[in-house]
């Protein structure tokens, strides 16, 4: 039987065959591991035959073919490795040695499995397969080790790319931090946006490739910080440039830069598997994991009475009960939960005393009665710990549910926006105190949820959420203070909105996290909920890519509509409505927003197509106003739009049975929506140009986009959520910067 090809510390070996690999080669990514699987399978086939000395000619020839196939595959593999070595001089020597070893080992295996080289009596129909058993094992071990080394070295190149990308981002951030003019800021931020796109792609691929789920969760948390901070950096920097003498604006901007640097550093720690100053990573220590380990030790007494000491067991329980003090000392834990936790803690100590007493007796005299008493003591101890786990879970999740429900209307954030615009410093101070109280509640909620999260990735997600509330709260306060000091500043108002959206987004994420934690507790493995109910994971990756493209297009459409002076223009209103609906479809690809099922998506696609048809009618009406030489182009574009909308409408209405067909339909709907949005990006500037041309200088371009308190949302029978910045390093950031007029009045 073939063993698993890889383990966390390297490539595992088969004890029956003696096959092994260099223990110093740690495989951290799935791509390297999966590349080795077929090679290990073929090598294991060869190795296993050494223990069966008699085989027919037919089997012998099959073994020869496998040996030759291994050699040919290794030859092709080494050719690629050598090409990589030539392109990366710092790895050339190591890579070349590994390639030579791999080629030599492959050739040795081919020789040892060559029928012509085997010495056997012609009169015997059953012949010996290998004349040199140890030679094959040695060659196989060398081959596996050298191939693994080539793969691990190649993986270093990916790590180097990420580090190089990070360094470029950091260098540009330093320039952004020092700029003193809007023009210079726009130019550098455009470069920064492109660099963040590159970094997003590289780190996203790396995150998906990581084997370690804990590292994957940490990477996701760091990338989420960068995602949200990208737009924060834009608005905070603009505010600071507009109000250079404002201390709260400077504090706000400095906070964003600091947080981004920390996130960038954590990404590098993860990909290089290193910690600053050689520190060891501290594993999260939760009640859930403590109880799990404690129960395993207790149940292990059934098999071995001597594998641990009573002092070790007592210490483990003490640590667990110390952690329960996070609940009993919390001002947000209900009286009922506090009393139950204290009672169960007391009971746990008593049960352990009884267990230890019976356990010590059983060590001295292993009678049937004592072993039965020990079994009862084990069961009672484990039952008590299960009840304690259930109680702290109930305390944490009920608190979280109540807090999330209470804060769902975002009353404090709305008040800060209103009082900031009014320039009411006293009222802003009052509401910042309330926000600080809310922050403390949410931070405490995250700390308690971490204890009951059930898996290390979810623990890390709780820690990330706690950090987000800790940091974002003060940033909202500094942004609100800036607005109160400069109530007529549009950029200060926009900046506060961005930070408030980040807070609202984190609250929304907490609802999903709470459901995942409950899934773990209820035995559903805590797998992330997927709205699509579609095949995974490759197909969903395709959907996600389409969704991202759709989001970029909505940003471009928004930029175009903001250029229009007449926001009541029918073309603008249809364009804004279509952009909002496309954004809802993008959120669906992320498992977020109001569209929860595929049917919701298909219905939204139908409404989107209808809105597009209405826009085409508006284009026909516009064609009557423009000059004759411009009319054909406009009518041609309108017909294209009608055709695309009809295709989308037909796709959305088509029936689909089964997961595969449903996926195909979702894919087609989003693809066709993307096509419509692409055309819309071309139509809006064309229409604006024609109107400007026909209005003799009255112009349809605004000098500066106004602050829109309530965006126009049309074409849907449900309230579409406020636009949130969902991607980081998006390609259209340059357009966002270019299209914003900074020289507003203070």
From TrEMBL:
GO terms for molecular function: actin filament binding; cadherin binding. GO terms for cellular component: cytoplasm. Keywords: Cytoplasm. SUPFAM superfamilies: alpha-catenin/vinculin-like. GO terms for biological process: cell adhesion; Rho protein signal transduction. Residues 1-20 are annotated as: Disordered. InterPro entries: Alpha-catenin/vinculin-like_sf, Alpha_catenin, CTNNAL1, Vinculin/catenin. It is found in: Cytoplasm. Residues 7-18 have a biased composition (Low complexity). PANTHER family: ALPHA-CATULIN. Belongs to the vinculin/alpha-catenin family. This is Alpha-catulin. It comes from Taeniopygia guttata (Zebra finch). The lineage of its organism: Eukaryota, Metazoa, Chordata, Craniata, Vertebrata. The gene is CTNNAL1.
């Amino acid at each position: 039987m073939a063993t698993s090809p890889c383990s966390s510390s390297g490539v595992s070996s088969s004890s029956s065959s003696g096959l092994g690999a260099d223990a110093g080669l740690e495989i951290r990514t799935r791509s390297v591991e999966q590349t080795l699987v077929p090679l290990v399978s073929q090598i294991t086939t060869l190795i296993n035959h050494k223990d069966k000395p008699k085989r027919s000619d037919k089997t012998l020839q099959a073994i020869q073919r496998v040996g030759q196939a291994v050699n040919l595959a290794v030859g092709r593999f080494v050719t690629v490795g050598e090409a990589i070595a030539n392109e990366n001089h710092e790895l050339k020597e190591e890579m070349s040695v590994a390639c030579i070893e791999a080629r030599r080992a492959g050739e040795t295996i081919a020789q040892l499995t060559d029928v012509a080289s085997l010495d056997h009596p012609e009169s015997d129909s059953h012949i010996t397969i290998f004349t040199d058993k140890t030679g094959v094992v040695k060659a196989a071990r060398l081959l596996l080790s050298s191939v693994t080394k080539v793969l691990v070295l190649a993986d270093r190149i990916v790590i180097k790319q990420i580090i190089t990308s990070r360094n470029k981002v950091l260098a540009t951030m330093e320039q952004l931090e020092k700029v003193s003019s809007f023009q210079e800021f726009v130019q550098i931020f455009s470069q920064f946006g492109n660099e963040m796109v590159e970094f997003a792609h590289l780190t996203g691929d790396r995150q998906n490739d990581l084997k370690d789920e804990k590292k994957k969760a940490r990477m996701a948390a760091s990338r989420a910080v960068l995602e949200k901070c990208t737009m924060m950096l834009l608005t905070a920097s603009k505010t600071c440039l507009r109000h250079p003498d404002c201390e709260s604006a400077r504090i706000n901007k400095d906070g964003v830069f600091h947080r981004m640097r920390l996130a960038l550093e954590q990404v590098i720690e993860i990909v290089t598997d290193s910690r600053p100053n050689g520190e060891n990573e501290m594993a999260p220590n939760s009640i859930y994991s403590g109880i799990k380990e404690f129960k395993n030790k207790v149940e292990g007494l059934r098999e071995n009475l001597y594998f641990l000491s009573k002092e070790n067991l007592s210490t483990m329980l003490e640590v667990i009960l110390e952690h329960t003090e996070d609940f009993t000392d919390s001002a947000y834990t209900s009286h009922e939960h506090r009393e139950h936790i204290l009672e169960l803690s007391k009971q746990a100590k008593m049960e352990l005393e009884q267990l230890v007493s019976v356990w010590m007796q059983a060590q001295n005299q292993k009678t049937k009665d004592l072993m039965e008493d020990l079994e009862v003591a084990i069961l009672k101890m484990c039952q008590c710990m299960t009840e304690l786990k259930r109680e702290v879970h109930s305390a944490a999740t009920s608190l979280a549910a109540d807090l999330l429900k209470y804060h769902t209307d975002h009353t404090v954030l709305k008040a800060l926006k209103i009082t900031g615009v009014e320039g009411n410093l006293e009222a802003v101070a009052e509401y910042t105190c309330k926000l600080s109280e809310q922050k403390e509640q949410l931070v405490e909620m995250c700390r308690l949820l971490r204890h009951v999260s059930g898996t290390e990735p979810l623990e890390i997600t709780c820690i990330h959420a706690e950090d987000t509330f800790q940091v974002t709260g003060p940033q909202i306060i500094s942004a609100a203070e800036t607005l109160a000091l400069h109530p007529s500043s549009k950029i200060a108002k926009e900046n506060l909105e961005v930070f408030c959206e980040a807070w609202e987004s984190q609250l929304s994420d907490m609802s999903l996290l709470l459901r995942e934690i409950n899934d773990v507790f209820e035995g559903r493995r805590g797998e992330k909920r997927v709205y699509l109910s579609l095949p995974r994971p490759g197909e969903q990756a395709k959907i996600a890519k389409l969704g991202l493209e759709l989001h970029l297009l909505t940003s471009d459409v928004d930029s175009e509509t903001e250029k229009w002076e007449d926001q009541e223009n029918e073309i603008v209103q249809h364009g804004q409505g279509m952009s909002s609906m496309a954004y809802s479809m993008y959120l669906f690809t992320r498992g977020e927003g109001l569209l929860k099922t595929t049917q919701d998506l298909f219905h939204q696609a139908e409404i989107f197509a209808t809105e597009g048809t209405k826009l085409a009618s508006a284009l026909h009406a516009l064609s009557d106003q423009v000059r004759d030489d411009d009319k054909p182009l406009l009518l041609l574009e309108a017909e294209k739009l009608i055709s695309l909308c009809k295709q989308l409408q037909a796709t959305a209405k088509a029936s689909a049975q089964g997961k595969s067909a449903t996926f195909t339909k979702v894919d087609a709907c989003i693809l066709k929506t993307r096509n419509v949005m692409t055309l819309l990006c071309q139509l809006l500037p064309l229409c604006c140009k024609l109107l400007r041309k026909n209005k003799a200088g009255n112009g349809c371009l605004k000098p500066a986009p106004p602050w829109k308190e309530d965006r126009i949302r049309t074409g849907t029978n449900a309230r579409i959520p406020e636009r949130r910045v969902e991607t980081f390093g998006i390609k259209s950031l340059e357009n966002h910067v270019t299209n914003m007029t900074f020289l507003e009045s203070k």
